[in-house]
């Protein structure tokens, strides 16, 4: 009865127990745990070699040797492919195996006792601990490499403030030898004005068991003090107090100087940033908004939940929502930047003009959209007012041009009448005045000047209307010959010689009417101011500037004129450069106006009695 109870207990033990009898190691007693380990029911009395039950060959050999030698053997964490006792799934498991020889009363070998204890959990934990140990050593080596290659000075310090480690960068920065006493030298390299503060803050942080972050000046190897940022955190192993602090010292001297330079405008920039109404939002790659900034809620009076994933579209004017939504869907599909001007509803129900912009950003987290809605309602309305005023000014300017043109035209008839009356008076009336001829010549000259002024006023209006004339590719020689043909009378009267050298820049992209007006005024000016002691000689040449832009030079040998020191003389309307020669002072003003409108300028050099040179820079 006692043996039966013992076998019942052994049969249901969680550890595997089996007896193997005789030299063939035949199966004797096998409990349930061992049967599961061996893969099911085991035939009692059969040799182990014929029913190995998944036991490896090396284990079978060891079992035979234990039987023969009589020496027990223990195998730790021996791997088996055995079913899991919880779910029956066959997996790799580990057992501590004990092989104990069995002897009879005469101490003769009788067999073996096989005892197997499942240590899968302990073995997996041991292997995991081993892997973690290897990983820890690998990470420690990597951390050391990173700390010694990073540009910052890294360090470790204990609770008493003694430095346990410092990276080589400290020696490079300070110029101290590796044999220097780090704990004694470090405080001495801190600027005297910062030393007490730094030592106190570090001691206080270590006493409180917290990290620190502060800036101070440290002396570099060249003797210059540089601003450094020191940061450290405690190494915590709860519930114990920290015993080490690890940190880094980073040079922030340049950033600090830049911050000092920027600090002067910080107040203005902060005011400007607070004054600009910006509604900032982000959206997913599919175009659904997942974030609104605080100003969006303040501006719209709605929460993020109320705005929803398409909030800004719903805030637009109903007549604009469909087009804005279609444009947004197109940009999300194509990746194009989104930009548009729309009216958006404010929290008080007022619709205000906004510029809505969004850009796509791709990073490691995938595609995202970043957008902003900028209130430009005031600018938009101001632009409308300015456009209205501009249209009014343009209309007034056209009316003024029309008035000047009409007045100059209408005054010609009274001028003709006066000229006719004076001609009739000269023919029929006689004067007993010794200065009769001089007076009549003065009257004729005044009438000619009045006639010329009226003609040039009309020409001024006409030329100003042609300032916006379309450009075309023009042949300079052809246009010059056309202008000289119109001036042939003046050329003949001045007995002028005209030299053309246009090979450097034979063509010019310009407005035909504008080019003809510039050339006509410059050439007529050169012919008008001829020197009475010599025939006129006018040289016209083209060249290229240092930037490759075309230039035109008109040089004469006439009377010359007195100019200011500035070669870029500004000519005013009705300003006459040489009062001895008849004229209204309009021509050079027109040239300057035309060149200014096309992005060029006029350069003048002149010597009284020798001549004048005009250089036309067509483009800046």
UniProtKB/TrEMBL annotation:
Domain annotation PAS: ranges: 265-307
UniProt xrefs under PANTHER family: PAC DOMAIN-CONTAINING PROTEIN, PHYTOCHROME-LIKE PROTEIN CPH1
UniProt catalytic activity: ATP + protein L-histidine = ADP + protein N-phospho-L-histidine
Entry-linked SMART domains: HATPase_c, HisKA, PAC, PAS
Database matches in SUPFAM superfamilies: ATPase domain of HSP90 chaperone/DNA topoisomerase II/histidine kinase, Homodimeric domain of signal transducing histidine kinase, PYP-like sensor domain (PAS domain)
Record-listed E.C. numbers: 2.7.13.3
Domain PAC: 76-131, 212-264
Residue ranges annotated for the Histidine kinase domain, each copy included: 406-620
Taxonomic path: Bacteria, Pseudomonadati, Bacteroidota, Cytophagia, Cytophagales
CDD domains linked to this entry: HisKA, PAS
Coiled coil: none
MF terms in GO: phosphorelay sensor kinase activity
Protein name (record): histidine kinase
Pfam family, one: HisKA
Broad EC category: transferase
Gene3D superfamilies in the cross-refs: 1.10.287.130, Histidine kinase-like ATPase, C-terminal domain, PAS domain
Assigned keywords, A-Z: Kinase, Phosphoprotein, Transferase
Domain of life: Bacteria
